[in-house]
Amino acid sequence: MKEWFAAAKAKATPIIAVTSEALAEGLSDAPAAAAKFAEAQGFKARPGETVLCPGEDGAISTVIFGVGDGGDPYVFGALPRSLPEAVYSLSLPAKLFDPD
User: Mind spelling out the 3-state secondary structure of 51-82?
Assistant: First the structure.
């Protein structure tokens, strides 16, 4: 059986969810090198858009994930298919899926 939650001490690769409306703010939550890499890839935070950012060692250091306008909670449905098997932690924008 797969374990869906990692131990608190596990080293997890961060997934940073970014809305298209707060693109600059969302990218500022990422490490500078990852934000630059995403910008160089033409990242616009379209729904389901995924950028796997490499670290200095070439391994994935950060994942930046676009959620569009932030109104669709199902946008995360395709995320697992775009990621290699590893341990991840998800960081969400403060007002994601906020009806107001």
Answer: EEEECCCCCEEEEEEECCCCCCHHHHHHHHHH
How would you classify the pairing of strands 13-18 and 88-91? parallel
Q: What is the 3-state secondary structure (H, E, C) of 12-44?
A: CEEEEEECCCCHHHHHHCCCHHHHHHHHHCCCC
pLDDT digits (tens, 9 = 90+) for 42-88: 999 999 999 999 999 999 999 999 999 888 889 999 899 999 999 89
Q: Could you give the CA distance from residue 78 to residue 48 in angstroms, rounded to a whole number?
A: 7
> Are residues 39 and 64 in contact, defined by beta-carbon separation less than 8 angstroms?
no
Which tokens sit at 67? 């959620």
pTM for the whole structure: 0.85
Is pLDDT above 80 for 95?
no
Closest C-alpha to 41, from 65, 77, 72, 58: 65
In this structure, are strands 60-66 and 13-18 parallel, antiparallel, or unpaired? parallel
